[in-house]
Amino acid sequence: MANRSLFRGLTAIGVLTVLSGLPLSAFAGQTSAAVKTNTGETISLKSTRTGDQTFIQNLDGAHDFAGNEVAFSGFSGAFGMASDMAYILVAKGTASIGSQKAKPGEVLILPPYGRRGSKQRYDAKRFIQAWSEEAIDANRDVYARFQRVAKKQRMAMFFGRYESTSFNVAAPGSSSQELARRSVVGADVVTEIRFSGAREPSDIERTVVDKFTSALVAEDAQTVASLMDPTPFGGADLRGGADGARLLTAHQLISSQNWSQRFGDVAPTRVSENGNWQFVNGKTRTLLSLRPVGDFVFIQSINTGA
Length: 306
Prior knowledge:
By secondary structure, the chain is of the alpha+beta class. It has helices at about 10-15, 125-130, 135-140, 140-160, 175-185, 190-195, 200-220, 220-225, 240-255, 260-265; strands at about 1-5, 15-25, 35, 40-45, 55-65, 70-80, 85-95, 100, 105-110, 115-125, 270, 275-280, 285-295, 295-305.
């Protein structure tokens, strides 16, 4: 079973120290297996949001997570999603991707876009020190498993088998940097695209265009705003009201046109290597220009013509 952590904001960043590293080969998978939370809710691991941590016990089988097919055997541990990586901490059993198998005390780190990940040891003591009393009460069995891992690691450190470092997988920079990064790429639709396993730039662009235009037609202002170029609104940090201005602009854009009529059932075509896509519906032409910001592409402008 699994339980959604109440870790949000700074608490979700937690302290998770990596001790050593090994290469990991990841491959994309398409599974729909779900797990149950302690409250009886059925969830899919692929629905994990940026900033979430989910605690699971006694999980078996193949599950899709962060664009990877992960095989579990007697697994108890935690899943998390930071702005630039997803991770699976093993407290009991195993979690495997391809030929690589993580055992208790190890974490699988999964970058976006199906890129090569890594298997490393984590510092269980520092990890559980970040847990709130509420999280401990809701996940006592999993917490006890992490305590056992911490005890074994303490003995291993005593005998000099490894040393801890200050790398925090849930926030590789600082807490403030992580929260700023989340304000740009932490939206559900952006996380879904970045951790879908897609690698080809044209495929990623097409998905962004499809989701943006579908959101315009559906009048989904939150999705429209999340896919708009953040540069005019603050660029690398949309906290402090910038995200509100972006959302207001999305509402204005939605109300400016009959987007359903403009797009119709026409599929977009890529008209240049610079991120330009167009819809030609009868005599109307709509051009969308994309701008790369960091490792993601956002809609920079949308131009309509007769």
